Amino acid sequence: MKNIRLKSTFFIGVLLLASGQVLSQVVPVSIRVLDEVSAQPIFNAKITISESHFNFKSTEPNGVSIFKVKPGQKIHITVSAEGYQSAIDKEFNVSDIPERNTLTIRLFLDDGQSVIYGNIKDQNLNVISGADITIKIRNHEYRTTTNELGNYSVLVKQSVLNTVSSISIILKHNDDIRQASKELTIAERYIEFNPTFGDLSSEYGLSPNSEATYSAWRYLKKIDEAFGNFEEQVNPLYLQYEMLAEFYKIIDFNGVDAELVNHINECIVLYNSIAHFFKALDTEVKNQVGEKTREKYIFKASKAVFNKYKSEITAIESKVNALAEKEKQLGAKLSKKYRRLFESM
Hints:
Oligomer: single chain
Number of helices: 8
Number of strands: 16
Order of helices and strands: HEEEEEEEEEEEEHEEEEHHHHHH
């Protein structure tokens, strides 16, 4: 959640036109890239979407990238990743309903490539995120880091595996280093390696709630990041808050710290009430403008509505900013409780 300031010029600019058309509306489109066989997320896959212009991004460790796109249009998506077969091309119709704008694309390994992948846990089955992983195969080393779900993967040429009978994994988490090995029978294309290490929960503050809470927090921050700064976008305000509330609703609360769950639910309630308020204001502007379409009439009506409800708008601004400050304090509290960084993005 970000602090906001609803200036009159910004407020007027984002109201609906009398014709019912939106000045400029964007919705988030979430694209996840996975390995076709292992279903592991592919980090740093290159995604290009083309609409009126080209937009480039790389996937996060969870295999996801989020774009902001105008709804109601067909976009062309190209995805490629090192070690995987040639780029996948796909067309996608962008909906104005956020839940429909999620897409999963699966890639096949290149010939001659193998992937070593797995999930790292301690003996209490708590996943270990943010751990440095080194895969050693004779004199070759491959390095990566576990994501928030404890998953990792590295690409290895099959020619490297053809003459070895085992691989080893070295895990480094804070000041602790552990090692495990796996025997190989053939040079497989997909090698799943899920070592379980000693009890780290007392050392690193891991608990049954730690990973679920951290994952929910990260998703919350990604939603905020995708919508960006309210003052930098030209969407109708009510739609901004409606979409934020809908995206917050799909956060998985299973195993999440109760304080974070309560905070997210509080945001949802506030966002829905704000959306309802601004939608009513949009209707009032449209009623004042009537059949007139000239910009000066729209501006005059918008300004009149803003001045009429200025105190209510200021109160909304205060509520959002107070909740943003509360979220910042909650992040500090969770960081201390779980001994990991719940950062503000």
